[in-house]
Protein: Outer membrane protein beta-barrel domain-containing protein
Organism: Candidatus Defluviicoccus seviourii
Amino acid sequence: MKRILMGAAVLALSSGWAVADSKMPPYTAEWGPRVGDWEATFGGTGASTDEFNDHVFGLSGSLHYYVTKWLPIGVRQTFTSSFGDNLSDTWGGASRASVDLQAPLGRFQPFIGLVGGYQYGESFEDDWIYGPEVGVKFWLNESTFVYGQGEYVLVGDNDLDEGNALYSFGFGLNF
C-alpha cells in the first residue's frame, strides 16, 4: 500500500510540473489566420498568353503576413517552363507583391486583391506587371489549407486586352 501511495504522489507531482512548464498555446477551434500570423504557400502554376495559344506550367510559392485577420500582404515567386504552338525549351519567372482582402467565413475563405511586380526569362518579355487577382482558400484544419487563385496581369504599358492569365493551385500553412 505504501508503494501505491508513493507512486501516486510522484505521478501527481510530476504531471503538475509538466503542465506548469508547458509552452503550448491554448487550443482554439477557429479556422484560418489570426492577426500577426505568417502564411506560406506552395503550388503548381500556369500562365496563358492573351490569345490562349501559348502556355507555361511551373511552380509557385508565397509568403504573407496578416496585418489583420482579413488583410494579408506579401510576396509571390513563380518559375515556369513553356510549351505550345512554338514548342521550345524556355523558362520564365515572375516576382510580385500582393495585397488581398480575405473574407473570414470559416473553412471557405474567398479573397480578392492586387498584384504588382516584374516578369523575366525566355517565356515572357522582361517588363513590369500589375493587375487584379481572385481566389479561394479551403481550410483543412486550423492552420492548413488548399487554395486556387487566378491573376490577370497587364504587362508594361500594353492595352487591357493584352494581359496574361496566371493561375495556381496548391496548399498553404499558417504559423
Observations:
- Helices lie at 2-21.
- The mean pLDDT is 85.
- The first strand starts at residue 38 and ends at 48.
- The chain has one helix and eight strands.
